[in-house]
Design a protein that fits this description.
FAD/NAD(P)-binding domain; 7-stranded mixed sheet; 2 domains; 367 residues
Length: 367
């Protein structure tokens, strides 16, 4: 069991800034997210598209913003020793940041704390909970083939760490999808800087020979297909052939239904499904909080929910005049952190400190 003053659910920009604000006020903090990388919606939906409305930053991408927020929060979410001091460059796990963990339950304890569990067995004992889950947990869309569930060689995300070989290196990889997510993955994999990290064979699978992507991106992938670097398979997956291995089930092939009504088998070593992500409110809707149109109702003074010591910030919350903007989420995270600091540390001085002049804040920041 992991004990903490505050558990932040969601590692998007608002969740990362929430962790920074909590740490700055002297509270211990843990962050958990269902995605295998930090950045939330910014990384899941538009990692390389420009953002123009972050105060003081004329323009940055979702990836750049996430890296900056991780670097800012590093005093309270430090890189693990195994990953080294530049772990935030890969948007992956650091100390106190738990990725690929979908929060399942929230249970009150007798002393006013909360026990929080995830789908992969993590258990937190938190004095407070801050929900920064955006529109909900972003979960990958599947192919609708039941046999793929739980298969050890079915993937949904590219790895952020370019120094490590991906699981499909030197093997046959099938990328399923016809949108920007799939085509950008094919292009990135085909152009991987280290040849040893590329698959021995790369196949793009889509239900028809029509893509929904930026014209330049489609043209680049079409050229790879023309050159023979990428094979194009047209068909609708019907079922998967699996076999048992030591760690679980592995998909050997997909059964595809063609436009001619005939089925054929597509052998593979790894399958990367890139059909986009879908936000799901999920278990959060059963925790007993007051909801309004699938959003959490909060007080605008502290961003507290109807549950004690549970606050909600960012796109997940609603209140009169709510604007779903990054700037507003950062403001909400600041007020929520200060409210919790007073509640959890009632005997501590409550006057406002400034990072420009406060020795206490400088010590916490390590500067």
């Amino acid at each position: 069991m992991i004990h903490t003053d505050a558990l932040v659910i969601g590692a998007g920009p608002v969740g990362l800034f929430q962790a920074f604000q909590l740490g700055l006020l002297g509270l211990s903090v843990e962050v958990v997210d269902a995605l295998p990388f930090a950045g939330g919606q910014c990384m899941a939906l538009y990692p390389d598209k420009p953002i123009y409305d972050v105060p003081g930053v004329p323009v940055c991408t979702g990836r750049e913003l996430t890296r900056s927020l991780l670097q800012q929060a590093a005093p309270f979410l430090p890189p693990s020793e195994a990953q080294g001091p530049r772990a935030h460059q890969h948007l992956q796990h650091t100390q106190h940041l738990h990725l690929g963990q979908l929060v399942q339950s929230l249970t009150a304890t007798a002393d006013g704390a909360w026990t929080v569990t995830t789908d992969r067995g993590l258990v937190f004992q938190a004095q407070s909970v801050l929900i920064a889950a955006g529109a909900g947990a972003f979960l990958p869309r599947g192919l609708g083939v039941a046999e793929l569930d739980g298969a050890i060689n079915v993937h949904h995300h590219l790895t952020e760490d370019d120094s490590a070989a991906p699981p499909w290196a030197g093997q046959h990889l099938v990328v399923a999808g016809g949108g920007e997510e799939a085509l950008s993955a094919v292009l990135a994999i085909a152009q991987t800087a280290q040849p040893a990290h590329r698959p021995s064979r790369l196949t793009l699978l889509h239900r028809r020979d029509v893509f929904q992507a930026d014209a330049a991106l489609e043209a680049a992938v079409r050229e790879l297909i023309h050159q023979g670097s990428v094979q194009l398979e047209i068909g609708l997956p019907q079922s998967a052939e699996c076999h048992s291995v030591t760690e679980g089930n592995a998909v050997q092939a997909l059964s595809l239904l063609g436009a001619d009504g005939q089925t054929r088998s597509l052998p593979l070593d790894h399958l990367l499904v890139r059909l986009g992500l879908s936000p799901k409110l999920g278990p959060l809707s059963t925790w007993g909080m007051a909801l309004e149109r699938k959003q959490v109702s909060v007080s605008t003074a502290t961003f507290a929910t109807s549950l004690p010591r549970v606050h909600a910030v960012g796109d997940i919350n609603t209140y009169p005049g709510k604007k779903r903007l990054l700037l507003c989420g950062f403001h909400e995270a600041t007020l929520a952190a200060h409210a919790l600091a007073v509640e959890l540390r009632p005997d501590a001085p409550s006057h406002l400190l400034y990072t420009t002049t406060s020795p206490v804040l400088h010590q916490r920041l390590g500067v």
